[in-house]
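Quick one - inputs below.
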Amino acid sequence: MIKDIVILAIETSCDETAAAIIKNGRVILSNIVASQIDTHKKFGGVIPEIASRKHIEIISQIIDKSLFKANLKFMDIDAIAVTQGPGLVSALLIGTNYAKNLAYALKKKIIAVNHVEGHICANYLENNFEPKFICAVISGGHTSLFYVKDYNSFEILGETLDDAAGEAYDKIARVLDLGYPGGPAIDKISKDADKNFIEFKIPIENSLDFSFSGLKSSVTNFVYKQKNIDFSFKKNVAASFQECVTNSIVKKIFKACELKKINKIAISGGVASNSCLRKKIIIECQKRNFEFNIPDVKFCTDNAAMIASRAFYKYINNEFYENLDLNAKARI
Ligand code: KG4
Ligand code: ZN
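Output:
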């Protein structure tokens, strides 16, 4: 019988301090996330210096909690995984440093994980979904399309030329005075609004790359020209913006499927928790009889379970850091 592989993962790339323990890349033994949203809310976005300090304050407790919840001790862990990047360097350093210290003290192997690849692997949690598939990673920091050929093989097909989709959501929410983070706020108020109130457009619809900065400017200019901004106006602008963003994402996912002759789809990242996008993917996949996976909302936004899942496939591929020179990277 093959031995179970149990991985403890740490994620601190932005404003969530997270630790998780996962068995064989898919079975969740614990998944703890401490969000700093309430702290950053009053600034309208994440302040890196504050994010790092908050990570330092809480990281030990979060790791202890993950062990307690899994009913395990440090010695039961086969390897320690950590997000190496991309992300805020000062925030990433808290996680990488902690992981290196743990690995050294406990004589455990250490696995460095790319945060974006982690988002892709959120699709393996608590299910049997397998490559090959097309995956859109849509978050506050990234918007990319991948051809996932195998567990350790990713081909990038397109990415954003300017802003990430989540960044656009957050900016438009600020323009409409809906608070931070903008994605959930826009998602909520768009539910009973007129998505055809105004037709916004995205210029590069024939490419697999994304662009949201032009859309951001169009929506902002449209709002600033308006004299009387009431709640119904805000709702309708938010819904029209969302219609444009989600249509662009869905269109490019199916374009990528056509290109790679693949009929299997996955999404991930904070924006993948958007109810309108999720509905569109389901409808379009059912229409075409495509197989698809949409992770539970708690696995779409930043978490360490997805990092542990990615680390499992690196573990079986023997991709470890043998020494302690692992460093955080803002970009990978
Ligand atoms: O993946 P994530 O937690 O962090 C990054 O790696 O960036 O994504 C955060 C982003 C934020 O921009 C947030 O506004 C957006 O995901 N988001 C949403 C929703 N929930 C979170 N965007 C649209 N609809 C949502 N329901
Ligand atoms: Zn993320």
